Known about the structure:
CATH architecture of chain B: 3-Layer(aba) Sandwich
Distance between the termini of chain A: 110 Å
Distance between the termini of chain B: 38 Å
CATH superfamily of chain B: Glutaredoxin
Number of strands of chain B: 5
CATH topology of the largest domain in chain A: Rossmann fold
Structural class of chain B: alpha+beta
CATH architecture of the largest domain in chain A: 3-Layer(aba) Sandwich
Strand content of chain A: 25-35%
Number of domains of chain A: 2
Helix content of chain A: 25-40%
Strand content of chain B: 15-25%
CATH topology of chain B: Glutaredoxin
Strand order of the largest sheet of chain B: 1-3-2-4-5
Largest interface: A-B, 25 and 35 residues
Number of strands of chain A: 25
Radius of gyration of chain A: 31 Å
Largest sheet of chain A: 9 strands, mixed
Largest sheet of chain B: 5 strands, mixed
Number of helices of chain B: 3
Strand order of the largest sheet of chain A: 5-4-7-8-3-9-10-11-12
Oligomer: heterodimer
CATH superfamily of the largest domain in chain A: P-loop containing nucleotide triphosphate hydrolases
Number of domains of chain B: 1
Radius of gyration of chain B: 13 Å
Amino acid sequence: MLKKKNKAAVSKQGIKKLAIPKVPTGIEGLDHILSGGLPKGRPTLVCGGAGCGKTLLAMEFLVRGARDYDEPGVFFSFEESEAELILNFAPLNYALTELIKEDNLRIDCIRVERSEIEETGEYDLEGLFVRLEQAIDEIGAKRVVLDTIEALFSGLKDQSVLRSELRRLFRWLKVKGVTAIITGEKGDGTFTRQGLEEYVSDCVIFLDNRVTQEISTRRVRIIKYRGSVHGTDEYPFLIDSTGFSVIPVSALTLGHSASRERISSGVADLDVMLDHKGYFKGSTILISGLAGTGKTSLSASFAEAACKRGDKTLYFCFEESQDQLFRNMESIGINLSKWEKKGMLKVVATRPSFYGIEMHLLQMSKAIEIFHPNCIVVDPISNMASVGKFNEIRAMMMRLIDILKSKEITAVFTSLNTAHQGREESDGGIASLIDTWISVREIANGDEQNRALCILKSRGMPHSNKIREFVMTKEGLKLIDRYSGTAGILTGAARRADSAARASGQAKGGHQ
Amino acid sequence: MKKVVVGAKKKANNNKTTAKKPTAKKIVKKLWELRLYVTGQTAKSVLAFNNLKVICETHLKGEYSIEVIDLLRQPQLAKGDQIIATPTLVKKLPTPVKRIIGDLTNTERVLVGLNLRPLR
């Protein structure tokens, strides 16, 4: 019969296709790395240390199933009572009580108390089977969670009975045709303390919560998945008010299109340096420089120009509050509050140390999802160094850039250098991902510090290779034409003095 | 249906599916309230019931009541007494509540579970 089915499939699609049926978890990103979802009608083991999100993942699987896929679910809890679970999940807007009322969800607490149990001979776990069956049949459940069945091991002494009964239980679940999540606490050198992986081996998901530099990052990995391809890396995931979400880096591909449209940098003189047209739409721009060289001013000019053009702009600020930014930019004639009121500009100001690096990425991608900006500014990316390692920041930036490129969002990043840093370290490791890289620097000249700007690179356009003096005026930012005096490039007062002297010299010469 | 067996009568031993009438002649102090949960008439269930009868008759004559609950017929009752293993004997009274699991062949352990023997 199976052969017949295969033949039918061959003739229909031309190619032989036999894939195991899957059930989407409904969790963002997780279905992607599972290439579709959990194996339908089979148990999946979710393991990890204490507090890594096993129960949450399991509960979300049920809630999403009940809410989005019309698949009722039963949660068998061996640890917490129904009331405790409802209270614990209250901050997550899962609306458990409503789902329970609608018969789309059932929470059944199975308590095993060692002190109340006396073992006196042969027994089996038929009682447990009866309970499971009763609860599953009552609401016609398609999804089942056992959290965590390992509690049985502490409640019952006879391990050989328990193990053979567990084997029977997982077989029974398969026969019952429910898609199940079994959770298990990470053991010493094993995935679970009691070796549940021995029984549940179709799909094993491992969750991990690591703390580096005082900030924790959660990661998920698919250890095995019989009969299916799956992502094999460790993927960071987040738990926030909307639940569980995974951001797989490999989910993004280099398949984005590249626009030929050009947009202004917000500084007319800079546009001139960029082939008289400005940045490419959808490109990524990095402005790096020491403190006080005008990086924020350049990005604010870009944001204002974008708003004027009618492009919605999202401004991520990691150093200043929104109000501080607005006030400071007013001094160079940039009125951002006007655009904010019109809804063209949105400022998201957070401290980098507020979350871990992954949380930042998720917050940013969520904000992008909600606001739909055409342009974004991240000011500065270098502050992320306080919460992540170099390669983590790099991975995060890569993912962010991929998200932005796929949505054709033009992005301006700023990066704060310190004086001893070389050019390579000043970019957060993303130089190769950047399309246009502008460096702003200070030039000491006599008793003054003056600013200068140059374009280190700009992909796809002929750009100026000159170092130009960069001045901030009440009317905005300006670049002064390269001024070569008798002693090389002159800036600031020296330039003014020299040009005045020349002018007077010329005037005199003209007179003679 | 719950089947109530009162241990004053010796007759009730093997046929546990039919309800037994309380036939105590004198007023018995039913101090021991016992429930035996089974799943169908398996060898283990029958053995547990027979073992229980013997133990009760020996140690608790006239002072106990046994209620046999077949979970295959009344699955909803498994939740109330937190039954996971079968057979399970639940000692409801006297407190503390105790769950004695298995076919009750280890008489010594049963007596410990029923608080009739001090724990060594």
